Amino acid sequence: MASEMKQPEVYWTKPNAHCPNSRLPVLVYRSVLPDDMTEESVSKAIGANQWFHGGTFKHYPSAHFHSNTHECYAAISGRTHCLYGVGPLDDLSDGVEFDMQAGDIAVHAAGVAHRNTESSEDYVYMGLYPKGAPKWNNNFCKADEGETRAKGEEASGVDVPDWDPVYGFNAVTGGGSGIGFAFVKQCHAKGARIIIGDLKLTSDAEQYVSKTKDSEVAFQKCDVTSWDDLHDLISASVEKFGAVPDVYAPIAGIYEPSWSNFWDDETSGSYKTIRINVDHPIKFTRLAMRALAGAEKQGVVCLVASTAGIRANYLASLYTASKHAIVGFAKAMGQADVDEGVKINAVLPGLVTSPLWLDREDNMIEWGKYAGRKQLQPDDIGELMVRMVESKEYEGGTCVLKTPYEERIQEEGHTKLQQKMKEYDPSPRPEAALDRIKDNLQSERGKNWT
Ligand SMILES: NC(=O)c1ccc[n+]([C@@H]2O[C@H](COP(=O)([O-])OP(=O)(O)OC[C@H]3O[C@@H](n4cnc5c(N)ncnc54)[C@H](O)[C@@H]3O)[C@@H](O)[C@H]2O)c1
């Protein structure tokens, strides 16, 4: 992939009598394929984002759509002119047109009519399909309105894939150490490109980053208590990778240091523990939603709470309060998965061997009797977070607890929680008015990140 890429061009199609088209836009990415543009290198690059090669084709002049899968076309040779959104029986001027040439990619949703109107002799493109998609069906935009409507219903029921075919970008705070660094390495191994935001890197992380291309993993100094710094992490993704991240992991956190805890009571102003452990993940989630709405794409925010988010700890009451806040926030935000395509969930790790315990000046390990307890490794949590990002099993709002002894869903995601709410609180509960929220997000849609 090129290291400097632009945001995709966005084209909209509307349903008509013969083409269902889609509420999802057509995205055209310019010059994003590997330089050699072979089937092998393109399959590898796009496959890393969970879209897989289904066939290689030449000029295709018949308007058609697939009602059962989304599709990604990667032009690997020559050039073509495309007409989308209309079939042979429609007013062609209602369609959208654009050129493509070798190196470009077009992504269109199930139901969107598409064809080439004119191509160079050497035009060749690959078709790629999201993981788990069925073999595509062909519909030639000539059916009557009833059949087209039925095909449209089928198309709009096709799940939107979790991963953008071109970019799997992550922004990770606290990625310079412990759990964050483990998550970075595991995402990178899967082909994601990553911005690490942290105050510093551990020596292991520094070595890893220095051995990795800047176009794949980049470190940006960031103090998460500065909301400008958080904003700039997303800008760094746009500058380096050409798009806002798909995955946001606010992992940075602190555990009752002597300079910010409940018992020493030397804090004036506000508790830094709350600013780092609570304000930062909440603000980063809001920035993520704005960035994703602007880019018209779906995404994931994976929050890091703790077993302290459901348990009592008199020694570390401020930390306990901060992690309870994250569990509550994740539960509250589960609905964004259904309403906005942004999956927000949280992991609740038990004790993990990391610099959080090993690299500190006080006696917390002794006070808490942590040394003798069985501990997880950062990779155990990194692996779980990758699953929580990728798998539909963990819908928005899901909170997963993992200790050395068990892994379990502590809080079900939004859909299941809705059913359970009646058990928590059987009193009548009228539906909240969400128009203001919808309007806010609508006003952010389609805007470039600035
Ligand atoms: N280690 C555990 O036992 C454990 C258990 C449950 C939850 N957690 C949570 O996991 C997360 C990661 O912890 P870890 O164990 O990997 O610890 P860690 O100390 O190895 O990593 C925390 C990272 O956060 C960064 N950070 C701290 N303050 C920052 C700031 N103001 N701006 C930017 N970065 C900052 C640190 O530099 C560090 O790289 C934390 O949220 C922690 O509360 C840890």
TrEMBL record:
Source organism superkingdom: Eukaryota
Gene Ontology terms for molecular function: oxidoreductase activity, acting on the CH-OH group of donors, NAD or NADP as acceptor
Gene3D superfamilies: Jelly Rolls, NAD(P)-binding Rossmann-like Domain
GO cellular component: cytoplasm
Matching InterPro entries: NAD(P)-bd_dom_sf (IPR036291), RmlC-like_jellyroll (IPR014710), RmlC_Cupin_sf (IPR011051), Sc_DH/Rdtase_CS (IPR020904), SDR_fam (IPR002347), YjiB-like (IPR047121)
Annotated segments matching region Disordered: 410-450
SUPFAM superfamilies: NAD(P)-binding Rossmann-fold domains, RmlC-like cupins
UniProt keywords, alphabetically: NADP, Oxidoreductase
Family: Belongs to the short-chain dehydrogenases/reductases (SDR) family.
PANTHER family named in the record: 15-HYDROXYPROSTAGLANDIN DEHYDROGENASE [NAD(+)]
Protein name: Uncharacterized protein
Lineage of producing organism: Eukaryota, Fungi, Dikarya, Ascomycota, Pezizomycotina
